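Structure tokens please, single chain.
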Amino acid sequence: MKRIYFILISVILLSTISVDEIFSQTDSTYLRTEEILEDILQEPVGDIDESDLYDQLEQLLLNPININTATIDDLVQIPSIDISTARLIIEHRKKYGYFFSLNELNSIENLNKELVKKITPFLYIDRKPSEEVEPPGKMETIVSQTNVLLRSRFINALQTNEGFLKNRFEGTKPKLYNRLLVKYGNQFQAGYLADKDAGESSINEFSTFHIAANDIGIIHRAVVMDYFLEFGQGLTFWSPYAYSKGADAVVPVRRNDRIIRPYTSSTENNFFRGAAAAFNLGEFILTGFYSYNYFDANIDSVTGMITSAPLDGLHRTPNEIRKRKTASEKMIGGRIDYRYGNILHLGAIYYQSSFSNKFQPSNVYDISGDKFDYTAASYSIIFNRFNFSGEFSYNGISVASINLFEMLISNSFTFVTSIRSYPRNFNSLHGYAFGERNGATNNEFGIYTGFRWKTPIGLLNFYYDQFKFPYATFFNPNSAQGDEYLVDFLSKPIKKFELRARYKYENKDITQLIDNSKSIVKRLRQVFRGEIIYSISNQIRLRGRFEYNTFRVAQTGENENGYLIFQDVRYSPTNNFNLYGRIIFFKTDSFGSAIYEYENNLTGVLTNVPLFNEGIRWYFMLRYRPYQIITVSAKYSETYKPAEKSLGSGDSSIPGNLDNILSFQIDISL
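Here you go.
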């Protein structure tokens, strides 16, 4: 252990040594993508794999937006861009004509240069937008515009957990991931993905395939095999994950749909298998879709009803394997969109789902039956400096809604407010809308208000959210409510030096066992964070953070605290090499006061690690591109808790106080 820590500290010290300025800066695409994710995911919601959010950014990188033809709806697909930023870009294009270089973005008044650096990887220039492009067909054209992207990943826990020690798992320890994408320009894409979790036996335990086409004649989007649907504000259709409340008070509140997306994630639920196509008919877009897909389910052996549908995608033990793809869903529907320039966007959708088995409800408001019909409508109106958008969804019983108002008070001040109303008897099969329980679109009413203000001394984000769960559920014996607010301030007082301060207040009802019965109690939680980022040069960036959280439950006298301190370094001596290191010291009273931290990982991997009790965590990661077509990434991470005799619980528990993981990935681009 001492030797490992000595090596890490030595690397950090060596990285502070000055390097010659003749070395060029590191690959900007990786670094800017990571910065976008760090901004949006500053407030992780739990120990879950959110890699699908990374996949969304990767798809934007693979299919960049033509800035000379982009609409506001197109530009706001990029997470760092809000409506006010999109307006600035389009108004500049209208005034001065087509862009000839992305560097022209730096000349737009009130457009932050740091933001320009972040968004340029997602944009491209069509230098002759008014001319006909050369039609495909010539062999040299096909070869020059075709990209083959291969990714292979290996993740292995070096400690052996209980599931393997007691032979409960059918497979081997490594987690394996393989993905192949073949692209022809921005028009065609085909992909195959195979994934195996730790403990599973087959290297393609989960696999997915798709063929997609974009903007070919009247075909706006088309996917055969596996795909996502996105509509409106996510009440009816969305991917399994979406950005939630965080450091940016404006961007995560508003969903920006892309109608149909090819499925490129290893998340094993809530996607469709069949075909979908959207046709461009002038100001209208007409979409049809069909799916027949199997999913994991626990089925009552007596009634034949679905008692639950696990979403973890794990098939390691005999019990987990028995539930694998035991139920199916057939879904068919259509959608129509009307767009009037950059001013008006209206949409309507209808679909019907039927399941192989009926759902068995655990309470009166739970999903029940085997046939479901949904009808929804969405709108977006942009008028001068105002944007109204929202969605209404009807499940045959009740109507859920979310409505958003965004106002650009000035080029430096954006205000947003949102009202959501999800009835107790509304259950969305495939939605993932904004809310306190992000994605849980029932039994919630909330009002969210926030603003982003670019002051002369820094960037201020603030939001206040009030929410209520009006009716009792299986988990809560009575109605519950709460409110929270967050203040985040980022300042750059001098060049290459950033200061960040944050305070979050959260006061809400939770359920606890008191005298062996469930009771609603009020929990007050507060989080304080301070962060310093210092770029010594274009090659070296240092970051230090201190975070302290505390929560108190008045009814029980429970009072817990926790803190986290970390120091990290990013070293990029050449265009082909990135090196990361971080050491973290943490101490909390229990898991209840755990502190989550987003950290650098292999490209495409995005997890939030919960740190609790007392210990040290550190990781070391490198990304190296020895040739133009090959990128190699590797990461070693270690968590050490000196006072613990075991880590984790159940089959995932590890004897001892050390948890270390080795990860390796190779990306090939032809």
